[in-house]
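Researcher: Please predict.
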Amino acid sequence: MKKRWIAAMLTGAMVLSVTACGGSDSAGGGEAPAAAQNDAGSSDAAEAPSEAAGPVELVVTTTFAGEDGNAQNYKDAVAAWEAETGNAIVDTSATADETFKTRVITDFETGSEPDVLFFFNGADSNSFIEAGKVVSIDEIRTEFPEYASNMNDDLIADSLVDGKKYAVPVSGYWEAMFVNTEVLDAAGVSVPGADYTMDQFKEDCAKIKEAGYTPIAAALGNIPHYWWEFAIFNNQSPETHLEVPADISDENGKAWVAGMNDIKELYELGCFPENTLSATDDETFAMFTDGKAAFLIDGSWKVGGIVSACQSDPEDPSTLDAEKLAHFDVTYVPGKGSRKATDLVGGLSSGYFITRQAWEDPEKKAAAVNFVEYMTSDDVVSVFAQHTASALKDAPEVDEAQFNALQVKAMDMMSGVTSLTGAVQDLFMGDCRVSTFDGMPEIVTGRVSAQDAVAEGLEMYQNQ
């Protein structure tokens, strides 16, 4: 069976001006881009990129590193581009976390920025856009009119600084609920569907707990991000979710407080691991993959982590235990009020920036444009996007046979999504998140009220 991934499926539903919550977008177990599988000069992935002047060395920083499911795809595509052009890439990629973000911003501040950067296109990029350190797509098109012409411009995120478009996207992200069906079967619980509600979810959690399992794999003292996001979303709607409240007295402020109290209720019902306040995210994820917990809210990048956990060698896809992987599924986050379960958090949150430094270097300009065109060509993007989304005008057909079972389930899940809304926590940046992120243990144990924690964060946000 073949499916065509067309970005128009999500047009109008995505909110594209925010960053992803957990890390770079990824898909586990994908094959190498066609470009990396052909002889140099015969690739379809870069049919008509701009010509570079000659052998050039580019410094490139991306988030395709570590456990990112596209790390190998990136390496393969870079190798193919180098073979085809004779140019060289100095790769300074690293796992996307707060340390990485700080490093990138510091590099720009000290004049050590790369030539090409794959990075978040929301608030995280504000500082170097404000400083004029990257070049807009429109400016690049004044000299290279076909730049990113294979993309739907409406799906390329606008900068929060000046409304211009800077980053050419590769793949989108979604956040949804993964399930361990082996645990559900043992508890007599069905896989949640498109009409699933929080009331049904709490009933199912009670059954799972009674059967001797942990309902929700989450480390509230370490990574409360996903429950924070959806608990607030469940008290709002796709139309209002990205409006940061002025204070706790307005409707959105009340929704934020209600969301924190909803997490507190789940904690009091015993739905989280006993050590949820002290455990790490890695530990609770292992509970899920080891068949000790039923539900996990996380992002599309987690598909790769689950697949790796089903391999005897996490680095070798050929060691995949298909029977073990069959016990995992992905579905919608239980809904409440005006938010349907099929209204998910997601968008196109990252893309390739060309820095002003490279643009004004006569030896590097054409090579940098060539590289980004290659890495965002139809064939390469379709490999990176896989079960997520893209901004391609006309995505190539892909054969389902090349994907593992969880990726196919993710594709099926995405076909039923009614909207994708960006993550409000990515607008609510910095110290203002401390009172509800770091302070989640105090909220759920009642040592600090949800009202006080939210009020503290909002006051800091409004005054920053």
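Model: The first helix runs from residue 34 to 37.
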